[in-house]
Design goal:
By secondary structure, this protein is α/β, with parallel strands linked by helices. The protein is built from 16 helices and 11 strands. It has 3 domains: 25-226, Four Helix Bundle (Hemerythrin (Met), subunit A), CATH 1.20.120; 229-322, Translation factors (Elongation Factor Tu (Ef-tu), domain 3, Beta Barrel); 327-452, Rossmann fold, CATH 3.40.50. The longest helix has 33 residues, at 95-127.
C-alpha cells in the first residue's frame, strides 16, 4: 500500500485522543532520578561543609563554588552514561537514550562552568578586586592562570564537540579530550586545599564521583576495544542499494552475536588503517533468527564511503549489541506504529524480518517516509515480506514529494478508533523531535513514544 492524499470528498474518522499518563512523574526519562540524586547529594554536602561560612563568603562566591561542584558532578555522570556497558543500559533505557542524556549533561556542565566564572567576576566587582584576576591569565600574581587556561580550553573544546560539521574521527578525539580535562579538573579540586578539603564527607563523595567518571572514561577510551563485547565477523557482501546507501552483510568467524531486533552495533574494519581503528555505530537491519548480520548504512562520511571497498572475506570487528529501541522491551504494547524516515527505516527492517519468524502476534502500522520511490531503497524488500509476517501489518510508503509531510494527526486518522497504541520513531533528530511533539500534542503519553534519532554526537 502506498500513500495518497486524504480526499476532501471522503470524510475521515476523527482521531481518538489517547489516554494521558496517570502521573507526570512517570514521564521522566530513565536516568533522571540518578541525576537528581547526585545533584541533591552534592548540594547538601556542600551546604553542610560551608554552612557557617556561606554568609561570610558572600552570595556570589558561594554560588560560584556550588556551580563548579555541580558542573563536575554532571560531567562525571555524563561519562558514565556512555560507558558502553550493557549492564548499565537498563539504568538509562538503552545506550541510545543514554547518549541523548549524555549530550544534555555535558552541555549543562559546560554552562555551569561559565556560570561559575561569571559569578566569580561579579564577586570581584562586588568587593572591588580586579576582574582581570578572574578572566585573564598571568594578569597578576593573584590570578590563577592555570585554572583560567583550563577553563578556556574546556569551553573551546566542549563547544567544538557539539559542532556537527566536524568529521567523526576529529569529533571523537575532541570529545575524549573534554572528558579527560573534566577528570583532571575534578582531581585537582579534590587534592587542593579549598571547598572539598574543608569537609571530609564532601571530599569522599567527590572521590567516588571521580573514580566513576575516570573509570568510565578509561574503559570507553582505553579498554573497550579489548574488554568490550567483541565478535569476529567476515564480510559476505557489500552491496549498494542506491546512490548513497550500502548493505554490509557479515558472517561470524567463530560465534555469532545474539541480539534483539532494532538494536545497533559498533564496527571497525582493520583493513581501513587509521580509520579502521575507530568504532562506528550502525543499526542492525537483519533478524536474529538468521546467521548473517546485516547493517544498512547511509554513506555520508569518509568511513561510510569506503564500505563499498569491502571484499568477501575481509575481517570486521563487531561490538554489541546496544540500545533499547526494540519492540521486545515493550511487550505490553500490542498495537505499534513504526515510522522510519530515510535511513531511519533500518531498525524496522530487522523488526519486520523477525516478525516473519515468530508467533508474537501484534497489530502494526509501518510508515516508510522518503521523498520518492527512488529514495526508498528498501521499499520493494518490505513489499515482498510484510505480508508473510505472523503479525497483522499495514505498510505505507509515504512519499513526501506526492503527499507532503507525514503528521501524527494523519497517522491517528489511519488507525482510529483505536487509541491504545505505542509509537516507535526513527530518523533525523529534527524529524524525531517534531513527530514526538505532535504525538504528545494529541495526548499520547511519553511512555508510549519510543525514539531513536540516528546520531551519536
Amino acid at each position: 500500500m502506498t500513500s495518497q492524499p486524504v480526499s476532501a470528498l471522503t470524510p475521515s474518522p476523527q482521531p481518538v485522543r489517547p489516554k494521558a499518563a496517570s502521573s507526570p512523574l512517570r514521564r521522566l526519562p530513565k536516568g533522571s532520578w540518578l541525576v537528581a540524586l547526585v545533584l541533591v547529594v552534592t548540594a547538601a554536602l556542600w551546604a553542610s561543609a560551608r554552612w557557617d561560612e556561606i554568609l561570610a563568603l558572600g552570595v556570589w562566591r558561594a554560588a560560584s563554588q556550588l556551580a563548579t561542584l555541580l558542573a563536575a558532578s554532571l560531567a562525571m555522570l555524563a561519562m558514565l552514561t556512555v560507558v558502553r556497558a550493557r549492564a548499565l543500559e537498563p539504568l538509562f533505557g538503552g545506550l541510545d537514550s543514554a547518549v541523548r542524556l549524555h549530550r544534555r549533561l555535558g552541555l549543562a556542565a559546560l554552562l555551569l562552568l561559565v556560570v561559575h566564572v561569571l559569578l566569580l567576576a561579579v564577586d570581584a566587582l562586588d568587593v572591588g578586586a580586579p576582574v582581570t584576576d578572574v578572566l585573564v591569565p598571568f594578569s597578576s600574581p593573584a590570578a590563577r592562570s592555570l585554572d583560567i587556561l583550563v577553563f578556556y580550553g574546556l569551553i573551546a573544546l566542549g563547544f567544538l564537540a557539539y559542532d556537527k560539521r566536524l568529521r567523526y574521527e576529529r569529533w571523537l578525539l575532541l570529545h575524549r579530550g573534554v572528558g579527560l580535562l573534566f577528570v583532571a579538573g575534578t582531581l585537582h579540586a579534590a587534592t587542593e586545599p579549598g571547598t572539598l578539603d574543608a569537609f571530609e564527607p564532601l571530599r569522599t563523595w567527590f572521590v567516588i564521583l571521580l573514580l566513576v567518571g575516570a573509570g568510565a572514561w578509561a574503559y570507553r577510551v582505553l579498554l573497550f576495544r579489548r574488554l568490550g563485547p567483541r565478535y569476529a565477523y567476515r564480510v559476505h557482501e557489500a552491496a549498494k542499494r542506491n546512490r548513497d546507501t550500502v548493505d554490509v552483510v557479515m558472517r561470524p568467524v567463530v560465534r555469532r552475536m545474539m541480539y534483539e531486533p532494532g538494536t545497533f552495533v559498533f564496527i571497525s574494519v582493520p583493513g581501513f588503517g587509521g580509520q579502521g581503528r575507530e568504532l562506528h555505530p550502525f543499526s542492525i537491519s537483519s533478524t536474529p533468527a538468521h546467521r548473517d548480520l546485516r547493517v544498512s548504512v547511509r554513506q555520508v562520511g569518509d568511513f561510510t564511503r569506503r564500505l563499498t571497498e569491502l571484499q568477501p572475506g575481509d575481517p570486521i570487528d563487531v561490538y554489541g549489541p546496544f540500545g533499547g529501541f526494540t519492540p521486545q522491551r515493550f511487550a505490553g504494547f500490542r498495537r505499534l506504529v513504526w515510522v522510519g524516515a530515510g535511513i531511519g527505516i533500518t531498525p524496522f527492517l530487522g523488526m519486520l524480518a523477525f516478525e516473519r519468524d515468530n508467533e508474537d502476534f501484534r497489530r502494526i502500522w509501518l510508515y516508510y517516509v522518503a521523498r520518492d520511490v527512488a529514495a526508498a531503497p528498501y521499499h520493494h524488500e518490505i513489499l515482498n515480506s510484510f505480508l508473510e509476517a505472523d503479525s497483522y501489518i499495514d505498510y505505507t510508503l509515504w512519499r513526501t514529494s506526492l503527499s507532503g509531510r507525514l503528521t501524527a494527526e494523519r497517522i491517528a486518522r489511519d488507525i482510529a478508533p483505536l487509541d491504545d497504541y505505542a509509537v516507535m520513531l526513527c530518523g533525523t533528530p529534527a524529524f524525531v523531535a517534531d513527530m514526538a511533539a505532535q504525538f504528545r500534542a494529541l495526548g499520547l503519553p511519553r511512555s508510549r513514544i519510543i525514539t531513536e534519532d540516528l546520531t551519536f554526537r
